[in-house]
Amino acid sequence: MTGGLRGPRAIVIGGSAGSLDALGVMLPALPAQLDAAVVVTLHLPREQPSLLCDIFRHRCALQVREAQDKEPLTPGTIFFAPPDYHLLVDAGPSLALSIDPPLHFSRPSIDVLFESAADVYGPALTALLLSGANADGARGLAVVQRMGGIACVQAPASAGAPAMPEAALALITPDHVLMPAQMAPLLNQLHQGRVS
Questions:
Q1: Which CATH superfamily is domain 10-192 in?
Q2: Whole-model pTM?
Q3: Which residue among 116, 136, 175, 176 is the active-site one?
Q4: Which of 34, 46, 115, 153 has the smallest CB count inside 10 Å?
Q5: pLDDT in tens, 70-109
Q6: Backbone angles phi, psi at 160, to 5 degrees
Q7: In angstroms, what CA-CA distances link 192 with 18, 61, 187?
Q8: Could you state, in order of their start, the residue ranges of all structural domains in the chain?
Q9: DSSP element (H, E) containing 52
Q10: 16 noted as active-site residue
Q11: β-sheet with 10-15: strand ranges across
Q12: 43 is catalytic
C-alpha cells in the first residue's frame, strides 16, 4: 500500500481525559495542504452527542467531520469518532463503525483504531497517543510500531492525565515523545518526509 510514498498517508490520534488541551494546540496548527487523513478517537460519554466537530470546525485549516460508516478516508480531513462506536480503518481505505463490546471500558477504543489502521497503512501510518487515565492505546501503538509505522506519545509531564502515555512508555520505546506545541510541526515534517 505504501510503494514509493515519502511520508505517512494517515495520522491516527487517541486520547482521553486531558487530551482536549493538546488537540486544541495541535489540530489548528496543521496546515491546509497536509495531504494526509487525520483520524481521532477520544473517550466520550456514550449518552451525549459529541461536540468535537463544533469545537474544531472553525479553528482548523483542514476539513472537520464526524466519521460515518463506509466513508472513504480522504486526505486533508480530520475525522472524529462518534460516541459509543468503535472507529476502524478498513480496506479502501475507508472508515468503519462497530458496536463490538467496549475495550478498557471504552467505546470508541483507541486500540481498535490504531490496530486497524496499522493493518491497512503499515509504514505509511503515524500514531499519536495523548493524555488519558487508562491504558487504552498502548497496545495499539505497539502494533503500529511493529508494522513499521511511527509511534508518538505525549510527554507525560504535559498531560493532564499521564496514565495513558505512561502505559505506552512502559510497553514500547516510541519514535517521538512530544510536548503539545511540538506535535503539529512534527506531523507536518513527517508527512513531508523530512524526518523519521
A1: Methylesterase CheB, C-terminal domain (3.40.50.180)
A2: 0.93
A3: 136
A4: 46
A5: 999 999 999 999 999 999 999 989 999 999 998 888 999 9
A6: -65, -30
A7: 29, 17, 9
A8: 10-192
A9: helix 52-56
A10: yes
A11: 63-66, 77-80, 37-42, 10-15, 125-129, 150-154, 176-178
A12: yes
